[in-house]
Amino acid sequence: MPKYSRIIATSLFAVVFGLIPSVSFAQSTLNGETAFILNTFMFLMAGTLVMWMAAGFSMLEAGLVRAQNTATICLKNIVLYAIAGVMYYLIGYKLMYVDVPEGGFIGSFSLFYNPSAEELALMAAEDGADAAEAAAVYGSSDYSRMSDWFFQMVFVATAASIVSGTVAERIKLWPFLIFVAVLTGFIYPIQGAWSWGTGWLDAMGFSDFAGSTIVHSVGGWAALTGAIILGPRAGKYGADGRIHPFPGANMPLATLGTFILWMGWFGFNGGSVLALGSAKAATAMSVVFVNTNLAAAAGCIVSMIYAALRFGKPDLTVVLNGALAGLVAITAGPDIGNPAIAMLIGAIGGLLSTIAIPLFDKVKIDDVVGALSVHLVAGIWGTLAVAIFSTGDYLAQIAGILAIGVFVSITSSIVWIVLKYTIGIRVDERHERYGLDHAEVGLEAYPDFEIRRAGG
Amino acid sequence: MPKYSRIIATSLFAVVFGLIPSVSFAQSTLNGETAFILNTFMFLMAGTLVMWMAAGFSMLEAGLVRAQNTATICLKNIVLYAIAGVMYYLIGYKLMYVDVPEGGFIGSFSLFYNPSAEELALMAAEDGADAAEAAAVYGSSDYSRMSDWFFQMVFVATAASIVSGTVAERIKLWPFLIFVAVLTGFIYPIQGAWSWGTGWLDAMGFSDFAGSTIVHSVGGWAALTGAIILGPRAGKYGADGRIHPFPGANMPLATLGTFILWMGWFGFNGGSVLALGSAKAATAMSVVFVNTNLAAAAGCIVSMIYAALRFGKPDLTVVLNGALAGLVAITAGPDIGNPAIAMLIGAIGGLLSTIAIPLFDKVKIDDVVGALSVHLVAGIWGTLAVAIFSTGDYLAQIAGILAIGVFVSITSSIVWIVLKYTIGIRVDERHERYGLDHAEVGLEAYPDFEIRRAGG
Amino acid sequence: MPKYSRIIATSLFAVVFGLIPSVSFAQSTLNGETAFILNTFMFLMAGTLVMWMAAGFSMLEAGLVRAQNTATICLKNIVLYAIAGVMYYLIGYKLMYVDVPEGGFIGSFSLFYNPSAEELALMAAEDGADAAEAAAVYGSSDYSRMSDWFFQMVFVATAASIVSGTVAERIKLWPFLIFVAVLTGFIYPIQGAWSWGTGWLDAMGFSDFAGSTIVHSVGGWAALTGAIILGPRAGKYGADGRIHPFPGANMPLATLGTFILWMGWFGFNGGSVLALGSAKAATAMSVVFVNTNLAAAAGCIVSMIYAALRFGKPDLTVVLNGALAGLVAITAGPDIGNPAIAMLIGAIGGLLSTIAIPLFDKVKIDDVVGALSVHLVAGIWGTLAVAIFSTGDYLAQIAGILAIGVFVSITSSIVWIVLKYTIGIRVDERHERYGLDHAEVGLEAYPDFEIRRAGG
């Protein structure tokens, strides 16, 4: 039985050379390499699903803007995803995760997050003669470094995607992209260091499983400050106090975007178990999938019923946002043991989000796609729900919501204001009325179609 | 070698406390926890692919209805997915799978399907001190309970998605959703108990690997009775006997929907191996993927050639449906060892479906998207094909097709008729001609586009 | 501990009967069956992502053609995927991979690639009594045969998808499909045998990890010869030397297609590690995912900046193609240890592709979607980059690029020319100006929408 002797030899080698410290998968009966592989592969698959959410936001927003602004929102969404990846590689990841002092505020200011020397040695080793190199890798980490980077990177892209919808239809392309670079390279990672990076909020007991606050509300606060500083779209709020609806141009695209987001959210919440190498992790992941689905379903159904009762008919955009609000709401605690509670959390998320939509309009904060209601309002709700229904601590949850809200709002405002008074953030009103696609991107989204100029 | 001593200690503990009964992964050389993880993760990944099919049906149907009914079909599709999940959680899963008597007709009438006490104990245990809790979980089940629930839930949603396409463009929103709730909470689970729930059809030897009959024909029968009771769309069948085509408004969306369904079907059929924790399961799953792809390819190509020969040109919608019919046809037996036979089964499925489309029109059964031809006709064919080409028993296959067909047709008809004579199931003809989007959802799907009113 | 005795008995049995030769996963500490399962499942998941790229090409091309040609391009794309699968099953896979002589030129000319006898025996064995059958399978191969077939098949489909975009809007349906059958059954597999099939280019040291040349340039050369022999679209190049832009009809679809391709590329490059059953494979796969993403991001950003500087505004189609060019460029060497170099490779790929687009127009080679710039130009660049930045050998890389380019160009030209002078490859100019959808497919892509006839 050469295999067993090889395993034993490798293990002995590893033990003798001190390569296998006690790591966190220790509790499972899996061999260390198997657990390493499963954890790594899980990050890659879940990360791919979350990457797909960037397409979901694109389609949702492309469906909810007017036809003359559609190419611009597509361009913004694919480029913001690209920028998020580059900035998080250049600086963001290390700020968030590397050498954050216990209870501290920020990680390492240094460029590039790369494979470890041990990983590079393993990749370069000859097949069949790499036992020591392999043991050095799986003995010192539960998963490959870059698989974790990939998974965390798609989260920062999500936060950026949230912003683009709110400020659509009147923001200039380039300042928006600069804002995204700052958000994904600095603002998001610094607040992320406080909690997921094991900084002060983590020490305080703040609990946000997959990021109702850390991802969704962060995007929400950045979007809120942007919407305020940018002002509403031309013609949105009439002098007579009337609110003019600017209906989205393409409802099936918005529906597709919502389905994509719903699908991607299984990776978002499921992958946030951060492991697959034990029965415990697999069991928790299953519960997370189910809760995620039921919360979305409940948010969808409740918002439909509420819209039907209040407005007479169940506006499709309200229902789509209701499902998304259910997803955002469960994101802080999708590992709750009772799926019925997850449904309740999602239902309340959908309801709060639906109620919030007209309130933002009332105070003339113009949110093109309803992202504030979905990501900020339901994000806050979901974070509180961890204290109400689960093991979360009220004080820590409120502290986290407030601290992150204040930090992101202030830093975002500074960036928006600097951009506003330097290169300007708003397109000419003439361009806005005629459509950003011509002014900013130089083409039409639907050139073969007869378009009735809507709104504006 | 502390790992081995830990494994041994855990195993001893488990054996002593009787936690490891003989379970079905016993034949593999994997350790029990590894198999548990792989089976569970497979259900989650495959289930995510099947969930994605809900988006596929949405896009297919959004592409195949007329522009003025597009938002309504989007709304129905996302809400039906939500309802299916909630109903299956509330009541359906237990009716189908829990405590079905051997050879029996129905499972347990009780609310909520939740994680087991052992699973909750494992999730709550401290990392590193959870060996006994973990052994209790993977020792008593091959996969986590909720991963199986998730996988089964997306199947019931598929059955519901089939209905929406057939009855589109004239059914009212709310009665449709009520029907979906009954279908997914009761009708589908009860017939499912007969076979997959190890009831009387299973005892008889009925074989339907991933549900040509149990999922697709069930959706088909429910749709057929709906189409008959509802009647055809206004203007579809002229007084002079002429059939008026109402072409779908958005062919790329329909194409996208078909691609999504094709992709999701790898999860649908592949995941129906129900395991990944052995070389046998992995080998079978590979064969299933290949057969699924080749059957779809053959259905696609054959329907194109047939349409070109018969109608002069290969109508895109026929080709899309041909691919789907190939998929439905192979679903009852995708584990057949010879992929060439799978191609043949798919080819015949595509052919039968293409031939069937005009026949439904001839008897004035108005099926907006061709779902009856695809899911019912090819579903029956695929179920018979298991007897013709594989290990299936003719009698059992025919018994299953008939019993399920009769049961679903009768129960569906009752629900449709009750709805018809209470709240009504059909929109006003005026609303139908003007479009359901205004009447039922209160918005337009494409408000910025100049629409020529097509059909009606 | 019955499990261990069973493992030992199985292993003994396998050793005695010579069923476990030394196979390549030998270096990992995983048991052979676990590695077999992980490798197999990885091929299936990665293959599903690559299959999804067929939908990506469909949506990209459907968005970039004019409205009157949209249904045709949808039809071509789904049918080409079907044909690629059938041809690769019938003949292609064996030509490429089975019995290629060491350093040789071609594999086995025989029909059908099916599961092995050992695999069929395992699938037929009783659960719990299949230890010997299982050992025979995982002892003789690292993964199931059909999982590898599936993964390789979706690659040949990708090569075919590249062709359809370039020759769109004027090629007839049937000759195009015949070309696809020859490309996927013969041309692609034969050149593939030279490298991945361990033929003469492999012996020479040619290195193309996931196919910058073997897949993307092959599609590019086939498309280039097609575009030349077919000629440009009517009205594209004016008599006065002016180039008339024919803008794509649906930008959000093109954006969706790009996102789908980006997502699918994680399977394309990640799966090309060809294993998951060791820490080494998992580590390499993570690096591949990250490099793939960063190269795409860099290509996207650089092409946007270049387009803005050169044309004043960042044309969305240029940016989408820039991201794709970054992906193509990194495909030959995505396992490079330094992600910053991957970014550089992607950036140069995006830049070269963007520069190339007007050059093709200058020589009146009419490429509807820019596929030549993306897949051929960036494919050549990426293959060279392996020599510049990594372990590749300049001579071998250039030899591979040239040999494959010459072979594919000559064989493709022969097929195109034979088709041209037999059944004809070009639609009537009248049909071309009115749109291929009516002439070739017999329906409209957007029948409910008022279309302004664009171009032509």
Could you explain how this protein is built, in words?
- The structure is a homotrimer of 456-residue chains.
- With 456 residues, chain A is mostly helical.
- Chain A has one domain: Ammonium transporter fold (Orthogonal Bundle).
- Helix content of chain A is 68%, strand content 0%.
- Chain A has 17 helices and no strands.
- The radius of gyration of chain A is 23 Å and the shape is globular.
- Chain A starts with a helix and ends in a 15-residue tail after the last helix.
For the structure shown, list the relevant keywords.
456 residues; homotrimer; disordered N terminus; globular; Ammonium transporter fold; mainly alpha
Quick summary:
The structure is a homotrimer of 456-residue chains. The first copy, chain A, is mainly alpha-helical and 456 residues long.
Describe the protein's topology.
The structure is a homotrimer of 456-residue chains.
Chain A: H1 2-16, H2 32-64, H3 70-97, H4 117-124, H5 131-138, H6 145-166, H7 173-194, H8 200-204, H9 212-230, H10 251-270, H11 279-311, H12 316-330, H13 339-362, H14 371-389, H15 394-421, H16 429-434, H17 436-441
Mind summarizing the main beta sheet of chain A? none
Q: Helix count of chain A? A: 17
Overall shape of chain A: it is globular
Helix-and-strand structural type of chain A: mainly alpha
On the 0 to 100 scale, the average pLDDT of chain A is 93
Helix and strand element order of chain A: HHHHHHHHHHHHHHHHH
Q: What oligomeric assembly is this protein in?
A: homotrimer
Cα radius of gyration of chain A in angstroms: 23 Å
Looking at CATH, the homologous superfamily of chain A is Ammonium transporter AmtB like domains
Largest interface (C-beta under 8 Å): A-B, 82 and 80 residues
Helix % of chain A is: 55-70%
> What would you say the CATH architecture of chain A is?
Orthogonal Bundle
**Which fold name is given in CATH as the topology of chain A?**
Ammonium transporter fold
Note the gap between the termini of chain A: 77 Å
Strand percent estimate of chain A? under 5%
The total of beta strands of chain A comes to 0
User: Any idea of the CATH class of chain A?
Assistant: Mainly Alpha
Number of domains of chain A: 1
